[in-house]
């Protein structure tokens, strides 16, 4: 962090294991919206064909592993850039709503 106090920079590094330990509650919380969507849509985990990652935090290996475990070992779809997936989905939905079939 540049100039944290009186122009003094702060730098610290931690291991991946420590990072995962510190963030585990947050990581587990990422499954809450997934569970809610499945519950609200009345769809079972077993009915999901593809799990598409959206957002930069989905690059975190522990988040990926939690999702793989949640979906009983299903491989995650990684052929879509997680930073662009939301915009891509919005564009597809806009085309559907506008009746564009191209």
Automatic annotation (TrEMBL):
Q: One Pfam annotation, family name?
A: HSP70
- SUPFAM superfamilies on file: Actin-like ATPase domain
Supply one GO molecular-function term: ATP binding
Source superkingdom: Eukaryota
Query: What UniProt keywords apply to this chain's record, in alphabetical order?
Result: ATP-binding, Nucleotide-binding
InterPro entries xref list: ATPase_NBD (IPR043129), Heat_shock_70_CS (IPR018181), Hsp_70_fam (IPR013126)
Protein name, entry field: Heat shock protein 70
Native species of this protein?
A: Rhodosorus marinus
């Amino acid at each position: 962090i540049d100039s944290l106090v009186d122009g003094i920079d702060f730098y610290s590094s931690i291991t991946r294991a420590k990072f995962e330990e510190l963030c585990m509650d947050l990581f587990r919380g990422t499954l809450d919206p997934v569970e809610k969507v499945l519950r609200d849509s009345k769809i079972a985990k077993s009915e999901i064909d593809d799990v598409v990652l959206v957002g930069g935090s989905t690059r975190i290996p522990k988040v990926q592993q939690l999702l793989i475990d949640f979906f009983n070992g299903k491989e995650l779809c990684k052929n879509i850039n997680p930073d662009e997936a939301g915009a891509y989905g919005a564009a597809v939905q806009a085309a559907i709503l506008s009746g564009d079939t191209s």
